[in-house]
User: Which sequence fits this backbone?
């Protein structure tokens, strides 16, 4: 594992009405873990229409050591590329966490 990634989680607080919102004046993502060793592999690129805008979308496979609490609601950042986690599951041996991620769909 030769790459370094950051793991981000949504920055949400209660809105007082049973829902959640991003705190005023703050970033919608907050750092959960910094400079985590990972193996990042580009799987394929494609174009997709999201919100009536055609975007270039990249699919990635990211592998890290097992880590509790990583979920598809989180985001990874590698070399300035923001990737939304689509799935996260341990490998068969249980010694790695393998994630499928997508970049480009979020406009970055």
Assistant:
């Amino acid at each position: 594992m030769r790459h370094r990634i950051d793991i981000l989680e949504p920055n949400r607080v209660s809105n007082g009405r049973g829902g959640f919102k991003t705190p005023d004046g703050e970033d919608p993502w907050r750092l959960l873990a910094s400079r985590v060793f990972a193996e990042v592999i580009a799987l394929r690129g494609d174009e997709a229409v999201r919100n009536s805008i055609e975007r270039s979308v990249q699919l990635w496979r990211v592998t890290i050591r097992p880590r509790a609490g990583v979920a598809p609601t989180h985001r990874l950042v590698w070399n300035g590329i923001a990737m939304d986690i689509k799935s996260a599951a341990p490998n068969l041996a249980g010694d790695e966490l393998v994630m499928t991620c997508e970049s480009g769909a979020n406009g970055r």
